[in-house]
From TrEMBL:
Entry's transmembrane regions: 20-40, 52-77, 107-134, 140-163
Swiss-Prot/TrEMBL keywords: Membrane, Transmembrane, Transmembrane helix
Database matches in InterPro entries: Sm_multidrug_ex
Protein name (record): Uncharacterized membrane protein
Length: 168
């Protein structure tokens, strides 16, 4: 994740502002809010926390409704093609391999899955799993938003607290 963040900062730096960089990073799968707050912190872009938090949250939330509402019909169509069917099947099986807690506890499972910053978790994967499990939008979207807020607290402490003491 660190090398990807550094590469994005290097590629975008000088072309767009720091705020736009962390917003874009927060929208990218895998990196999401976690990567956005790391990039915003004192170790790299040194964007003030009160400015970074809303940018990262909004950037991370924007893709979620599209994933929840559109990914199932898109995947169903892609599965009818020879070219995309293997990729979709692989994505689905990878996502579903992480679905047990979400399936079992639904709302709170989704909150924790999105909120706890571990590899392979986050809003993108949580939204994909929720869509594949058929979790209703009215239940999935608020759970993912709460999970993003939990991740914000954890990553703010890590990025600005712990790393802030080292690099600040």
């Amino acid at each position: 994740m660190e090398s990807l963040i550094k590469s994005l900062i290097a590629a975008l730096g000088g072309k767009i502002g720091k705020e736009a960089i962390i917003f874009i990073i927060s929208m990218i799968p895998i990196l999401e809010l976690r990567g956005g707050l790391l990039a915003a912190g004192p170790a790299w872009l040194n964007v003030p926390l009160q400015q970074a938090i809303p940018l990262c949250i909004i950037g991370n939330i924007i893709p979620v409704p599209f994933i929840l509402l559109l990914i199932t019909p898109i995947f169903n169509w892609m599965k009818t093609t020879k070219l995309f069917a293997p990729m979709v099947n692989k994505l689905e099986s990878k996502a579903m391999s992480k679905s047990d807690k979400i399936e079992r506890y639904e709302f709170w499972g989704l909150v924790l899955f999105v909120g706890i910053p571990l590899p392979g978790t986050g809003a993108w994967t949580g939204a994909l799993i929720a869509a594949l499990l058929g979790v209703k939008f009215k239940k999935a979207f608020p759970a993912i938003c709460i999970g993003i807020c939990v991740a914000t607290v954890i990553m703010s402490i890590l990025s600005y607290g712990l790393l802030g003491m080292i690099f600040g």
